[in-house]
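Hi support team,

I submitted a single chain yesterday and got back a structure, but I'm not sure I'm reading the token output correctly. Could someone confirm the output below corresponds to the sequence I sent? I've pasted both exactly as they appear in my results page.

Thanks,
R.
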Amino acid sequence: MTSSLSFLIFSVLVSYVNSSAYVEQNPCYNGGRQRHLRRPMHRHRHRRADVRFPSGNEVMESESEIAIDAELAGGLMHCICSYKYEGARCEKRIYTCGHGEKSRDASTHREYCRCHHDWTGNDCITPVCHNGLLDERDQRCLCEQGWTGTHCNIPVCGVHGLFVGGKCLCADGFERQFCDVPTATTLLHAATWSAAFSFPLMLVIIVIKMNRNEYRNFNKSLASMDSTKSLISLQK
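Hi R., thanks for writing in. Yes, this is the structure output for that exact sequence:
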């Protein structure tokens, strides 16, 4: 019994020491996983460019699995990086900049994402929620009542209503669920106003045309009178 217990304690200690040594010897940064390669022990670099990772709604490729010349545990190894990192030891951050552009700091020369309006985060894929909270798991806005849109900045009731008690209270002249349909009275008023405005306008246009015609006829009369006077003077 005593020997079995001693052996169990010894096994646990050996396992702990080995795991600690593995953590200390792991050369991969930022959550990268090391993978040992088979012998022979000649030095070489091994690249694989079929690692795919999501960037917003896109799928991008990266040479993120690269073998390095490290002689650990009696053989070569390489680092398998997470989709946001690359490099021989996963030391280089990949900035996908979903809703922005890559930029470089003038003093540190480090790359970063310059986000468009209403977007934030290291990769510019986190929306700014004006009237709501961010769902960090899905990276989307959970809007408060009365608001909608990607950034919770669009009123549900539009510009002709007010969200009260779980529904839209429409202004005079508009109806339906979102106050976006003019009422029959509003349409009638619009038609009446259009007719009332267009009739005087038509009269003005007619008067202008009549005046132009009269002016042309008057000029023609003057021209004919001048030609008649010229003929009379020639006959004399």
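A quick pointer for reading it: The chain has two helices and 20 strands. Let us know if anything else looks off.

Best,
Support desk
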